[in-house]
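Cont'd.
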Amino acid sequence: MNSTILKTASNYLLPILLLFSIFLLLRGHYHPGGGFVGGLIASIAFVLHSFTHGTDATLRLLRIHPGSLIPVGLGLAALSMFAPMLGGQPVMTGLWLEEPLPVIGMVGSALFFDLGVYLVVVGVVLTILFTISQYSE
Amino acid sequence: MLAAVLSGLIVSILYIPFGKYLKDRLSICVSFLPIALFAYFASFIPTIRDGGHITFHYPWVPSLGINLDFHLDGLSLLFSLLITGIGSLVFLYAAPYLKGHRYLDRFYAYLSLFMAAMLGLVLADNVLLLFIFWELTSISSFFLIGFNNDNADSRKSSLIALGITGGGGFLLMAGLILMGHLSGSYSIQEMLGANEYLKGHALYGWILALVFAGAFTKSAQFPFHFWLPGAMKAPTPVSAYLHSATMVKAGIYLLARLNPVLGGTDYWMYPLVIIGGVTMLYSAFHSLFRTDLKAILAYSTIAALGILVFLIGIGTPESLLAASVFILVHALYKASLFLTTGVIDHETGTRDVTRLSGLRKVLWPLSIAGILAALSSAGVPLTFGFIGKDLIYEATLHTVGVLPIVLTALALLTNVLVLYAGFLAGIKPFTGPLPQNLTQVHLPNALMWGAPLVLALLGLLFGCLPFLADDALLNPAAHAMLQAPIGTSLKIWHGFNTVLLLSGITLVSGVLLYVIRKPSQRSLASIERFNAWSPRHLFGKVAQYSKAFSRRYTHTLHNGFLRVYLLRIIVFAVLLLAFRLFTGGPIRLTLDQLSPVSVYEIIVAAILIAAIFLAVTTSSRLTAVVATSVIGYCICLQFVFYSAPDLAMTQFSIDTLTVVLFVLVLFRLPPFLNLANRLTRIRDWTVASAFGAVISLIAIQVLNQPFDGAVSRFYGDNAYTLAKGKNVVNVILVDFRGFDTLFEIVVLSIAAIGVFSLLKLRLNASEKE
C-alpha cells in the first residue's frame, strides 16, 4: 500500500502498539488483558508494518522468523508449568515473588506462562499471515 | 527387571544416532544384549525351581490401574529364556547372514525392539501393560516382515500380518479391559482370586470370544493362519525368531497365562480344542503340497501352534505339561530348521526343495543340525521331540468319553504330517546325490552353521537327559498354567504301552509317507486350484471391497469444495441441535427475563442488520469481507455492554486479523464473475436461517433454565486467594485451567506449522519448475 501518511504513522504505531501489547500482557492478571490478547495486538502491530513496508521489510525488522517464537513460547509455558515440580510441588502450582517489582508488578510463574502464550500467539499469527502473503505475492 | 525389559527399547533408540557406526564389523556387538539378558534370566532358575516367583512393581499411571508390574514364574521364565536364548543365536546368525546389507543397523534396531516387546509381554503382570507390549510386537514384526521394503510382496505381507494381528489386538484390548473391569484389578495375579466370579459372570462369553480373537490371530489359528506363510517374506533369521519361537507363541502364552483365570469350563475347552484341532490338521495337510522350504516350515509351524492350542484346551495337568514341553521342543527344532534353511538359501540361492539334495557333502556341519532337528520333529527316541510326542498322546488318551479316540486320531494324523514336513526340510536337502550346479557351494561363517547346530544339539541333550529342562523350566511352567503342582515328571522310557505303540505308528507311517511321496510343482499346482476358497483369498476380497467402499465414501464426503463441507457441517449441526431441542421437552419462549434494551443496543443492532444485508447482497468480495467484520465489531460492542472486556478485546483483535487474512487471500482473486444461481441461493438462505433460528431458540431456552452459579462463584471467590489474580478470566486461563491453555497453544502451533508447510511446499514445487 502506497500511502505516505500510513507509512509514517506505522513507524510510530509499531513501538506504541508493542508497548501497549506488553502493557496488556502485564496487567492481565488483575485487569482486562492477558497473553492472548496481548499477542494478538503485537501481531497487529507487525501486520500493520508489513502492510506499509512490505512483508520482507517486516521480516528483516524482526531479524528472526516469527515461526521460531512458537517453540520458545511453548517451551516457556511448559517450563513455567513444570518448574514447581523441581521444588516437589504439583504441576502448575503458582509460584510468586513476595514483593512486587517496580513497573512490572507481581511476578510469578503464571506471568511466565502468559508470556509463553503471548509468544506463541505472535509466532502463530505472523507465521500464518506472512506465509500466505508471501504465497500470494 | 525394568532395565532388563527396557534395555532392548533403549538399544533400538540408540541405533538412530549410532547405528551407522555399528554397521560393518561391529554389528556383532549388539548380540551381547540378548546374551546378557539370557544370563540374567538364567540366574532366576534356582528360585523358580524351588517353587518361588519374583514380582516387581513400578508405579506408572496408578490412577488408571496401569502399572509396570512384572511377575516372573515358571511360564514367564520359560518364555524369557526362549526369547533371549534363541534371540542371542539369531542376533549372532544375522550378522554374517545380512553382512553388508544397506539397512543392517535398522534390522538390529527392529530386532532389539521386538525382543524388548516380547520380553515385556511375557513378564507383564498388568493386562494393560501386556497389551501395550502385545501391540509393540505386532508393530515391530510389521517392520521386520517388510524389511525388504523394495519388494511389493514383502510390503503386502507385512500389511496383512499387521492387519490381522492388529485387528486381533484391538479385540483383545476390549477383552482385557472387560476382565479388569469385572474383576476390579488389572493385575493377572489378582485376577486369579476373582476367577470364579469371572467364569460365572454374564459377560464371560464375551471375554472369551475377545481373548480368543486376540490369541488366534496372533498365533495364526485357522481361519487367520494365512498371514504366517506370507510373513515368510521376511529375512530368514526373522522367520526363525518371530515366526517359530517367539511372536506367534504370544497367543499361546496368553492362553496359557489366562488358563487359571478363565479356563476349566466347556466354553474354554471346546473352542480351543476345535480350533486347535482344525488348525493343526489343515495346515499339516497343506505342508504336504509345498515346495518352498520356508513355506513347508511355515505350515508345519501353524500345525505346531494348533497342537499347542489344542493341548491348552484339553486342560488336564498332563496336557499342560505336554504343552510346556512342546513349546520348548518346537522352539528348538523349528528355529534350528529355519536357520538351516537360511544357510541353504544363502549359499545355494534357492529354497526349492525339489532342486536341493546331497548338500551333506558340502555343508556337513549344517546337515547334522538339519537331520537332528528333523529327527526331533519326528519324535525319534532319544530326541526331545520323542518326549514331547509321548506326552501329547498321553494327554489325548487320558481324556474322557469318546474324546480319546477322536483326539488321539487327530494328533496321530497331524504328527505324521509334521514328521513328513520336518524330514522334507531337514533331511531331504542333505541326502541323495549332489547336483552339478551345487558343487561350488561352500560352508559359510561358523556363526551361521553354529547357531542351528547348537539348537539341534540342545534338543538331543534334553532328549537324553530330560530332567535338565524338566525341574528347572517345564514343570514350573506347567505349574503356572495350572496354578497347582503337576505331579508327573518327564521320562525317556514309559515301558511298552499304547503311547509307545502310537509313537511307533507315527514314525513308521511318517517315514513311509516321506519315502513314497515326492514334493513336486504339480502337487503345488493342484492345491492352488482351491485358492479361491481359502481364507486368505476371502479376507483379501473383504479388504478389497472395504477399500473400494471407503474410496467412494471419501470421494463423496471429502470432495475438496470448502463450501460443501461448510454446508454439511452446518446442516448436520442444525439437525442434531434441533432434534435434541425438540425432543428435550417443551420449548418455552418467555421473553420476560430479558434485561431492558438500551438505545446503544438498538443502534448497534441496526448497524449489524445493515451490515448483514450488505454482506449478502454485495457483488464485491472485499465489501463482503468488510461487512462481515463490521458484524464482528458489532458483536464486540455487545460484549462491552455486558461487561466482558476481555472477550471484547480478543474478539476485536481476531476480527481485525481475520479481515487482513481475507484481504491477503482475496486480493489475488478475480472479482465475482457471477453470483450463485437462484436455487443455490435459496438453499443457502434456508440453511443459514435454520441455523440462526435454532441457535436463537437455544439461547432463549437456556435463559429459562435455572442457573447454578457454583462454578463461577468458585472462581470468583478463589481467584485471588489461590492464584493471586483479580481478573478471573485470566486466572482461569493461566492457572485454574492452564492445561487447557497449554493444549490450545499447541493446537495453534500445529495450525501454523500446517499452513507454513503446505504453502512452502507448494512454493518450492513451483520454484522448481
